[in-house]
Amino acid sequence: MGYKVVVVGATGNVGREMLNILAEREFPVDEIAALASRKSLGTEVSFGDRTLKTQDLDQFDFTGWDIALFAIGSDATKQYAPKAAASGCIVIDNSSLYRYDPEVPLVVPEVNADAVMGYGRKNIIANPNCSTAQMVVALKPLHDRAKIKRVVVSTYQSVSGTGKEAIDELWNQTKGVYVPGQEVEPSVYPRQIAFNVIPHIDSFMEDGQTREEWKMTVETKKILDPSIKVTATCVRVPVFVGHSEAVNVEFEDFLDEEEARDILREAPGCLVVDKREPGGYVTPIECVGEYATYISRIRQDGTIENGLNMWIVSDNLRKGAALNAVQIAEVLGQRVLKKG
Ligand code: 2RA
């Protein structure tokens, strides 16, 4: 006996990964529906060795369906998620719409799985921002051991975080640099992304940070601990998939780098690759298609009393979005729906 599962936004990067991961992890599915906007109607998407034809989100009746994984923008989520939730279908939403709503749990299962039990207030659970998810997976076990005071993070975020058109822009701009007459002007980003980096993701706020940077602060506080101070600089880099983060952590108590390495080696969702030699660390290319949050370059920060530096890398479409959503569905299945 399994679940009736809907994937909303099934033709997008994240929606397709949700279907892939539901199949890979053999989530107990009795029935599955792949929904898309009218313009993508009938597009075929893969679900394991099956092919699904997308159905029209606007016409779909969520009544009788158990879980809906939403991977569409905030505006469309605002229109359809409440309709799904009101019909009794529990929504797991990957947009930012509900993340900061005090009545909606914001969940990374390796960090705060118990928060799933708060789903009933709106019948909605929020998935965090991709750059937050991988960071809190690594911070949680260290926080439990030595209580984190402050985090300073610089991100190196791949273009797949923006979407398919950004992937195409990086590809075409890169080719255009080498092929005279095929130059591609920036359209997705304010500047050329090929062979460049852009210190701007999402919109600017009054205080000079971007919303992406603000998200990392607010979401880390909601998921892990409201007392942790977080300051972020989020940068777009010419990488197709895989977000990387240089993270500096200040603890209440001293934490030796070797002990930190041992803790992370045993921590859920974490994989330590950390040798002080060429190639003894993870780069985005190695994380693509994987589930793990990789941690490298673990080392003391001698400039403060109780500091550590580390390098955190993960597939932003997976742990940063689709995998985390499916893991939330697994927790729902085990603790709430209990059919599978
Ligand atoms: C990005 N975190 O990387 C944002 C949304 N996925 O663009």
UniProtKB/TrEMBL annotation:
Gene Ontology biological-process entries: 'de novo' L-methionine biosynthetic process; diaminopimelate biosynthetic process; isoleucine biosynthetic process; lysine biosynthetic process via diaminopimelate; threonine biosynthetic process
Annotated NADP(+) binding sites: T11, G12, N13, V14, K39, S40, S160, G161, N316
Enzyme class: oxidoreductase
Binding site for phosphate: R99
Functional pathway: Amino-acid biosynthesis; L-methionine biosynthesis via de novo pathway; L-homoserine from L-aspartate: step 2/3; Amino-acid biosynthesis; L-threonine biosynthesis; L-threonine from L-aspartate: step 2/5; Amino-acid biosynthesis; L-lysine biosynthesis via DAP pathway; (S)-tetrahydrodipicolinate from L-aspartate: step 2/4
Residues of the Semialdehyde dehydrogenase NAD-binding domain: 4-119
Catalysed reactions listed for this entry: L-aspartate 4-semialdehyde + phosphate + NADP(+) = 4-phospho-L-aspartate + NADPH + H(+)
Alphabetical keyword list: Amino-acid biosynthesis, Diaminopimelate biosynthesis, Lysine biosynthesis, Methionine biosynthesis, NADP, Oxidoreductase, Threonine biosynthesis
Tagged with keyword Oxidoreductase: yes
Protein residues bound to substrate: Q157, R236
A GO MF label: protein dimerization activity
UniProt-listed Enzyme Commission number(s): 1.2.1.11
Active site annotation, chain numbering: C130 (acyl-thioester intermediate), H243 (proton acceptor)
Function: Catalyzes the NADPH-dependent formation of L-aspartate-semialdehyde (L-ASA) by the reductive dephosphorylation of L-aspartyl-4-phosphate.
Complex and partners: Homodimer.
UniProt cross-references to HAMAP family, sorted A to Z: ASADH
Name of the molecule in the record: Aspartate-semialdehyde dehydrogenase
